[in-house]
Design goal:
Blueprint lengths: L1 H17 L18 E11 L2 E2 L6 E7 L2 E23 L4 E3 L4 E7 L2 E2 L8 E2 L2 E3 L1 E7 L2 E10 L3 H4 L16 E5 L2 E4 L2 E10 L7 E9 L6 E13 L3 E10 H4 L10 E2 L4 H15 E10 L3
InterPro entries: MbnP-like_dom (IPR046863)
Pfam families: MbnP
Protein name: MbnP family protein
């Protein structure tokens, strides 16, 4: 049965490569006049007080029910989908950004579908999302989801925004179907033991997905920002990886994926409720 499943999955992915025109969501654009503006949504990756970098060792002190332990973490992949972005103005009206599916990432080069198609997704760092054609106004709140909603998660042939199976963020076979990974964090953890022995190290692969783990984040801005053609604005968020990895027993859970729903849920909760926070908003008058 696994062979039939694999053949079916490969056929689906082959179709994705070959399709030159894919079905897209029909979005009714709002009436945008010349006074419309733009903003930049920034997800600054951090590790505690330090800037987040790949292949750099970070100290981590783990305290759980069995004691306190010193770890070191090195990361080679941090990726997650930000989707269905909405901006709320002072009157409570929402502007839904059309086809807003964005891949935030910091990663090394990735073979697509384990190299099945001879394709590689390049190393990349992306923390900023530029949102244009926003109706002029005073905005007080930003909303977005982490993950991909079921319409697109259940059918990888549908396209919107940056969604694609070619970016290495799709499962070959998961829960008997293909779907997107919502969040991925990979790297190496080292258990620093209090002994002359060499520290023990192992790789870890943590991700979460599943339609029921698709979740929305709402952030109230520290002050309203004016968006129009004369203003340059940004919403500056921080994403603290150190808060994401706060789980009880990381060493014995080097693989977190579909078979560990409770741990996937914890990763999602850590990301949404603790790791992503507002840092500041900025607004300057555009000079011409």
């Amino acid at each position: 049965m696994k062979n039939y499943l694999k053949q079916g999955v490969c056929s689906l992915l082959s179709c994705i490569f070959l399709l030159t025109a894919c079905e897209k969501e029909t979005v009714v654009q709002p009436n945008i006049d010349a006074a419309s503006g733009s903003t930049t949504l920034i997800f600054d990756a951090r590790y505690g007080d330090a800037d987040f970098e790949l292949n750099k060792a970070y100290d981590y002190k783990l305290t759980n029910t069995t004691g306190q332990f010193d770890f070191k973490y090195e990361f080679n992949q941090l990726r997650y989908w930000v989707s269905n972005v909405r901006l709320v103005n002072a009157a409570g009206e929402e502007f839904k950004v059309p086809e807003s599916y964005y891949l935030i990432e910091e990663n090394v080069e990735i073979p697509v579908q384990d190299g099945s198609f001879g394709k590689k997704y390049p190393a990349n760092k992306r923390e900023q999302i530029k949102i244009a054609a926003i109706p002029a106004g005073e905005y007080t709140t930003v909303k977005f989801a982490i993950g991909v909603d079921s319409k697109y998660n259940d059918n990888l042939t549908l396209r919107a925004g940056e969604l694609s199976a070619l970016n290495g963020m799709a499962f070959e076979s998961w829960m008997w179907l293909t779907s997107y990974k919502f969040f991925v964090l990979n790297g190496k953890m080292t258990w620093v033991k209090a002994s002359p022995e060499a520290p023990a190290s192992q790789t870890f692969f943590w991700d979460f997905a599943s339609n029921d783990l698709y979740a929305e984040k709402e952030i109230k801005l520290d002050k309203a920002i004016t968006i129009n053609a004369q203003m340059t604005t940004s919403i500056n968020l921080e994403m603290d990886v150190k808060k994401v990895i706060d789980i009880e027993s990381p060493w014995s859970n080097r693989l977190i994926s579909a078979s560990q729903k409770e741990l996937m849920t914890q990763l999602k909760n850590n990301l949404l409720t603790k790791a992503i926070t507002l840092k500041s908003t900025t607004a300057t008058t555009t000079t011409k």
